[in-house]
Amino acid sequence: MKKRKRETGEKKILESEIEKYVRSLHLHPVLEKAALYTLMLPGKRLRPNFLMASAKDFGVTKEIALKGAVAIEMMHVASLIHDDLPAVDNDNYRRGKPSNHVIFGEDVAIMAGDLLFSTALHLCNKIGEPVSQAFSKTLIDLVDGETQDIIMSKGDGTIDEIVEMYRKKTGALFAFAFSFGPRIAKQSVEKYEEAGYNFGVSFQIFDDILDVTSTFDKIGKTPQKDAAQHKATLVQKIGVEDSKKIADTLYRSALQNLKNSEKLLEEVKKVEKLLRKR
What we know:
Blueprint (H helix, E strand, L loop, with lengths): L1 H22 L5 H11 L6 H12 L4 H22 L9 E2 L2 E2 L1 H5 L1 H22 L1 H25 L5 H20 L1 H5 L5 H24 L2 H4 L5 H4 L5 H5 L1 H18 L4 H16 L1
Helix pairs in contact: 1-2, 1-4, 2-6, 3-4, 3-8, 3-15, 4-6, 6-7, 7-8, 8-10, 10-14
């Protein structure tokens, strides 16, 4: 019970910091409302949770960790806002609620996404050059991966190309989160980054499986959309069972790389249970 209360308290602190930071920018009221709308939708906050856990494992101060947590959630939410646009994935729902462009229009939704990308980078610049450089590379990988997704959906992709796309569009943010603690502590980050990439690919595969097997009520967005849009996914390429085998192998590899990281390992294991339940 104490543990659950602590986790709820940390989530509220994160959300309070996000709101406080956005309001401190003194934006046009419509832009502020649009940015906060998707940021404040109920979510698992996986990426900031992982980043905070990584920070705890390496003795990073709470002040620095919170900046990183706010930044990574902003970048993630920016990508979701742009993902849902009619020109990209064309989904009218996110986390069980109308997508940003449905409420505010495509034009304002694009601006809200742009704002969150910019402010996320600005926050990481405040932490220091090693973090800001890594975060900039993360954004480049994210955008490149999303572009690969768009291009492959107009044609076809090999298994290796699909996995590489997953590494960038989903794995890059997890790699940044997993390696945040050792990067701040000026220790080796390679095995943590690789764990993040492997976890990200595994996570994306499970997400694609849910698109085929789950319902709107459970996933909060339109199911069966990948096949309808001819998306390049491993599930469409090799089927659910073979995709699960790859996801499980990558997940176990990520756990192996995190075996000496108590807090982060604990957070990652929680997600396995969550995915399996869904």
